[in-house]
Amino acid sequence: MFIVRLTIAACVGILWTAVASSAFALSLDEAKAKGLVGEKTNGYLGAVNPSNAEAQALVEDVNQKRRQAYEDIAKRNRTNVQAVETLAGEKAIQNTKLGYFIEGPDGWMKK
């Protein structure tokens, strides 16, 4: 189990690098720094303010790529997608910079 978690964690790290280079005018790093998006516990990105169309489009694009990557990781490691999503969510929240948004029990909060 440790090897599977380690492999999944390594793949998740590679995933963040790949997803961070989005083709949108608003980059993922910019959107996080401006407080427009945040990391969710389920391994996906969320729009802090869903009425911002540019942020929402970025969220949808990033989450589509993450979902595909999670499915690939799960298949390679013979585990289910939910396990990968959960681990990815834990890692994403751990790696979120102070002052950036994360999903908490009562909604969005700054780390």
Overall spatial form: globular
Number of domains: 1
**Which sheet architecture does the biggest sheet show?**
4 strands, mixed
Q: Determine the mean pLDDT.
A: 87
Question: How many alpha or pi helices?
Answer: 4
Order of helices and strands: HHEEHHEE
Q: Give helix % range.
A: 55-70%
By DSSP, the count of extended strands is 4
How are the strands of the biggest sheet laid out side by side? 2-1-3-4
Spatial gap, N to C terminus: 30 Å
Percent of residues in β-strands: 5-15%
- Which secondary-structure class do the elements indicate? alpha+beta
Which regions contain 5 or more consecutive residues with pLDDT less than 50? none
CA radius of gyration: 14 Å
List keywords for this structure.
alpha+beta, 4 strands, 111 residues, globular, 4 helices
Structure overview:
With 111 residues, the protein is of the alpha+beta class. It has one domain. Helix content is 59%, strand content 13%. The protein is built from four helices and four strands, in the order H-H-E-E-H-H-E-E. Strands 2-1-3-4 form a four-stranded mixed beta sheet. Strand 3 (101-104) and strand 4 form a beta hairpin. Helix 3 (53-77) crosses helix 4 (81-95). The chain is globular. It starts with a helix and ends with a strand.
Helix and strand layout, with pairings?
Blueprint: H1 2-20, H2 28-33, E1 37-39, E2 45-47, H3 53-77, H4 81-95, E3 101-104, E4 107-110
Parallel strand pairs: 1-3
Antiparallel strand pairs: 1-2, 3-4
Helix pairs in contact: 1-3, 1-4, 3-4
